[in-house]
């Protein structure tokens, strides 16, 4: 085969043996599915402490699989998790690996996770969530798409080069964690601690923990952050009977509903002064990018079961989903919410809401704006009750430059495997790790998803299609080559 490559190079034909690599992938489809079956069979639910032994086993299996690539594999102890009752249990170790140490090559670092969201057959799964089941080319199982198949696809991509005795175009590092679904407990500290060692020679970080928007492959270049608030209104020293006391006291719940209603207009305008003004302007170029994205409004409506959306054109809808802030009111603690008709006046209620963050908002500023605004609205009510506003989470948004060489490499790899241009998309949700990697290591990051738009992450009947899994592996193979082409 080397002679073939040599000849091809002389003739100026494709110098990279993609055909052989892709053929290798096609020849090993059943092995890849079997590997996924073994991983999905482990109930690595990070939110359920009774499953912690399974989670530890999952990290061991990940380390074993990475050792198969012949690199240096380490299981990094990240300490303990404190449970609500004050006891502590060990966190699952983070698995790091390093394959290749050629200083003339770029070094990429692939981030992924092998813990999963909870799943039970009784939740409404059509199949056993921990027994990978193939129905019409879709592989159903918890964690199949989020994030076990993408992690395996990266490992198989490296393996393919090795199996064909081809030089790996870049050095590859892995950081695979087991607490992503519950907030990546312990990972930030580990990244900070390894900034000057493990991460010091990493050029680029690649995250494949998201999905496409349609059947068209996508590159993801932004995520929203989130500021989560508690607004507590406290009145009488205990709950009261509305028949006995109603009409004599200013009720905390009425105050709370009043201030919550001042956050956002019925048409979706955030009413907190300063927030809309902080949002980076929507450029003409961005507008054109959004116009090019493949997105089916009708399918989106039917998926969530509603007739009318906030906006009735694609550009406005996607822009408000990804690059504008929004307020969501999540719940009221202390309010009566059981069935029946209890005539209670709750003494203390806590409204919970969050504001999705986008560039150029700053969580510290948002905290100040929201707190001052709610207190001013509350003051106008002249209520004797007490208001306390606290910000519980302040996660920043993340945004990459789609003209960066990493994205150009992504576009080239997508074109080679799928013969089309990728959609350039953002995520409306928060992937805090992207921002942490960027802030701590200062490296450029790309999100290169292979999951399908309808994979049902965190939901019943999660799946990964064979098509996305296998073609996704080829995409990673091509991407390794394209990244190597970036000028040092
Ligand atoms: Zn995930």
TrEMBL record:
The active site is at residues 115, 180. Its cofactor is Mn(2+). One of its GO terms (molecular function) is metallopeptidase activity. Residues 222-378 form the Peptidase M20 dimerisation domain. Binds 2 manganese ions per subunit. The record marks 241 as: Important for catalytic activity. The keyword Isomerase does not apply. InterPro entries: ArgE/DapE_CS (IPR001261), CNDP/DUG1 (IPR017153), Cyt/Met_Dipeptidase (IPR051458), Peptidase_M20 (IPR002933), Peptidase_M20_dimer (IPR011650). Keywords: Carboxypeptidase, Hydrolase, Manganese, Metal-binding, Metalloprotease, Protease, Signal. Residues 1-15 form the signal peptide. The keyword Protease applies. One of its GO terms (biological process) is proteolysis. It comes from the Eukaryota. Mn(2+) 2 binds at residues 113, 146, 209. Mn(2+) 1 binds at residues 146, 181, 458. Belongs to the peptidase M20A family. This is Peptidase M20 dimerisation domain-containing protein. It comes from Coilia grayii (Gray's grenadier anchovy).
